[in-house]
Amino acid sequence: MSRVVVITTGGTIATSTGADGVARPTQTGDDLTAGLRTDVDVEVVDLMAVDSSQLTPSDWDRMSAAVASAAQAGADGVVITHGTDTMEETALWLELTYGGDMPVVLTGAMRSADAEDADGPANLHDAVTLAGNAHARGIGVVVTLAGTIWQPLGLTKTGAGFVGVDVAPRERRRVSLGELSAGRAPRVDVVATYAGGDAVAVDACVAAGAEGIVLESLGSGNAGAAVIDGVRRACAAGVAVVISTRVPGARVTVGYGPGRLLVEAGAVVASTLPPPQCRVLLMAALAAGEPVGDVFAKWGDVPDVRPATVR
Ligand code: ASP
Fold first, then answer.
1. CB under 6 Å to ligand 1: residues?
2. CB burial class (10 A; 0-12, 13-18, 19+) of residue 116?
3. Are 157 and 86 contacting, i.e. CB atoms less than 8 angstroms apart?
4. Check: CATH 1.10.3720.10 for 3-171?
5. Tens-digit pLDDT profile for residues 37-59
6. Does the 188-299 domain belong in CATH 3.40.50.40?
7. Which of 9, 81, 84, 129 is catalytic?
8. Ligand 1 center–CA 121 separation, angstroms
9. What is the tens place of the pLDDT at every residue in 242-256?
10. Strands across the sheet containing 268-269
11. Is there a contact between 143 and 80 (Cβ–Cβ < 8 Å)?
12. Where do the domains of the chain lie?
């Protein structure tokens, strides 16, 4: 019988709704796994019980440490239960920094544990089954939700569920920058752009000590003149600026004048990777001391992103 460690961190999969109508994490790992029908031997580690909006990079390190302990103790696989709001960020950080063969499967839920149509139990069942399957060895870090197995790179939560790259039908391409500490990684901020925006946010991030900025640019990689000036100042000060876009699913091509000026200022193009994951990739690239342009040329373009297909 294979042995899987379920590490809980909170999220909707563990929430019930209070008398005030607010959903809060209340379910322990034992509660979540009590009804599991599987021939896998399950062990629980209750690591955290928070809404995933509260997680910080240091918490990613706590998860990495729990994964490492499970591997050292000889587990065949690990499942991490997690809120969906920031799952794409945690999953990508773990993917970038975990090189082991033991499968690490993140899962969560879109509906509370006390909902009549709760999706958590089915998602957890899928995750435990996958993590305990001998054929999953070497798969690295994946996310399973709603019957789909996603690679972390390119995963995005949308109003209608997740979009990303379903790895089940294809060879898994792992993305790695080596063992790194998220808590000690340089500060990287995401800056929004909009009609009439100025450089206050860019300048403030630099003043706050950011070593990287992800510009959530307009369209295919544009920004107003004042923002471009701010990017020029940031790049001249040695801050790595990456151009992403605020348009879901769009590609940054910098084919217009303002985009060209951003590149001339020293900014790097992220192609299709959404801003929250650009931030994680930039943090890891800076922490690893890798050239930012090379890292984004390699992984900033994610082909085959699709909505979930329920099998
Ligand atoms: N707010 C929740 C969280 O991210 C949402 C969810 O889990 O679906 O923790």
1. 10-12, 51-53, 83-85, 108, 110
2. exposed
3. no
4. no
5. 999 999 999 999 999 999 999 99
6. yes
7. 84
8. 15
9. 999 999 999 999 999
10. 188-192, 212-217, 240-245, 268-269
11. no
12. 3-171, 188-299
